[in-house]
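Issue 218. Parser rejects a valid record. Input:
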Amino acid sequence: MKPETSSATAQAPLGFPVPDWQGCPAPAPVTLEGRYCRLEPLSAVEHAEALFAAYAEDVDGGDWTYLPVGPFVSLATYRTYLLAATAATDPLHFLVRDRVSGRALGTFALMRQQPAHGVLEVGYVAFAPALQRSRLGTEAHFLLMAHVFETLGYRRYEWKCDSLNARSRQAALRLGFTYEGCFRQAMVYKGRNRDTAWFSILDREWPALRAAFLAWLDDGNFDARGLQRQRLETLRAQLSQGVSP
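Output the parser choked on:
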């Protein structure tokens, strides 16, 4: 016999249908080529020395304040960390390389992977000073987002940070993430409390964000000194209003 459905259940609000959902593949090491940068699988053996030198440009180590690791006092300690970090597939770490100079300038990772639900997070963002506030850094995020949404087919892409980390919060909003709220007393790290700010991008939002990224990265958006003509946020707003950038 067919089980009866109570009237309360029949009238309860439900999420929108996701027909034929089969989940997503787990992220795997891959090389992603851009115009300005290249993402490569991170290797402790190949990349530790170059990355340690790039991070040394952050003289006071302030870029590590809100990360659960670092700063590293020696190449040996950094290499030991990388050996442990690259032994796992979640987080899955990527190197960011400048295609022109060939320099290794930073790393980030796909983490808290939930392939069954199509959800993962970008984290462990450790960009050397030369990569910060640059076309390379923005393109690196664009390449990883495009891989997640277009190749792997994920539905949700997350960004989380210490709620006191103003630079990270600003970066998330600039890149098109939507702020979702704060999880209070979510973590203890480096002997202190962390309230965690949550941000996300959904798959249905990606096409518009993609168009804005491409418009921002276009050579015509930069003057002879390499300075942007229009901000990424401005281009995103124009496109949402049907205005051609």
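Fixed in the parser; the record now loads. Residues 135-151 form the longest helix (17 residues).
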